[in-house]
Design brief:
This protein is mostly helical. The longest helix has 73 residues, at 15-87. It is built from 3 helices and no strands. The chain folds into 2 domains: 14-88; 92-126, no CATH class.
Amino acid sequence: MKEKISTPEDAPLEDGQDLKALVEKSIRWSQVLHEQNKKILRRMTWMAVGSYIRLALFLIPLIVGIIFLPPLLKQAFGQYQSLFDDIGGSPFSALNQFLPTDDDGSASAPVSKEQIIDLLKSIQKE
């Protein structure tokens, strides 16, 4: 068995001093706990502030992107579309001349793998 080491606080006190010492000890513990609680509360407050700052750092660029990105993309696609119009319509219009068509100009059948390979070989030769 372990022996309990006696400390001055554990020493038996006289009747009048016993109550006074317990009250003083209780007050000291209350003060220590109060200081710890203040530190914990301050730290939790800063943690909450940090959480809101991180949320703002995530949401602000997202919102700005949603507001300003669509007009920029329309402008960029408009510039590319003008390039494709100068070439002759769509970016794939050059391939349309090699695809089989019906009398009305619509595609007659799905393009087979062999037709695509032949098309790519003919383009490489040019």
